[in-house]
Amino acid sequence: WLTTSSVKQYTLVFPIITGENKICLGLKKRGFGVGRYNGFGGKVEPGETVLDAAKRELLEEANITAIKISSCGRMYFAFENSPVLMDVHVYRIEEWEQEPEETEEMLPKWHSTLPAAQAESVFLPSIPFDNMWPDDELWFPLFLAKKSFVGRVDFNKPVDGEKNSKMEDGPM
Ligand code: 6OG
C-alpha cells in the first residue's frame, strides 16, 4: 500500500572544531523543542535553497556566518498527531566568521566529543542526550563519525511525561 504525507523541509547545523573534538549545541529558548539542546536551524522558506536556509538560520540563531559547510545526513520525523513529515537536512560547519553567541532563540554551549574514528563505538558522556531530542542518541554516533546517514523516527507514544507534552505540539 501507499501512504503519503506532506513534507516540510528543515535545516539543522552543528558547528564543530575537528582538531579540538568540540561541538557547539544550542539550548533552545523558545518554540518547537524549547529546553532541549540541538543544532541551529529551522524551516526552509519558499524560494530559498536548503543551503541558504541553513546559513540564514545559523546567522539568526548563533550569529555566525558559515564558511565551510558540509551536508551530513537526512532525518525524517513523523508525529502521530500531525499530517506533516519533517524532512531535516543535517549539516556540520567547520569554518565560520564571528563566534557563536546567545540570541533570542538559542544559548550556545561547547561540548567535548571524540575523534571521528572513535565516535561511533564509544558512549559519549559529554553530550547531554538526556536534554536533547530522544532520536539524537540514535544518529549522533554516525554524525560524529562523519558517516552519511538517513533515518526516520516515528513518534507515536510518550517518551516520558514531561517531554511528551512538547512532542504533542507537533512540528507546525
Ligand atoms: P523551528 O521550529 O525552530 O525548527 N528538529 C529536531 N531536531 C532533532 N535533533 N530531533 C528532532 O526530533 C527534531 N524535530 C525538529 C529541526 C525546528 C528545528 O528543530 C529541529 C529544526 O532545526 C523530533 O523553526
Short description:
The protein is of the alpha/beta class. It has helices at 50-62, 116-119, 136-144, 161-168; strands at residues 6-17, 22-28, 37-38, 65-79, 84-97, 106-112, 149-155. Strands 1, 2, 3, 4, 5, 6 and 7 form a 7-stranded mixed beta sheet that branches.
Report on this model:
There is one protein chain. Strands 1, 2, 3, 4, 5, 6 and 7 form a seven-stranded mixed β-sheet that branches. By secondary structure, this protein is of the alpha/beta class. A hairpin with a 4-residue loop joins strand 4 and strand 5. Mean pLDDT is 90; it is low at 159-170. It is built from four helices and seven strands, in the order βββαβββααβα. Bound molecules: 6-O-methyl guanosine-5'-monophosphate. Residues 10-12, 31-33, 38, 41-43, 77, 86, 88, 133, 135-136 line the site of 6-O-methyl guanosine-5'-monophosphate. 6-O-methyl guanosine-5'-monophosphate (6OG) binds at residues 10-12, 31-33, 38, 41-43, 77, 86, 88, 133, 135-136.
How is the secondary structure organized here?
Blueprint (H helix, E strand, L loop, with lengths): L5 E12 L4 E7 L8 E2 L11 H13 L2 E15 L4 E14 L8 E7 L3 H4 L16 H9 L4 E7 L5 H8 L4
Name the descriptors.
7-stranded mixed β-sheet, 4 helices, binds 6-O-methyl guanosine-5'-monophosphate, 172 residues, disordered C terminus, alpha/beta
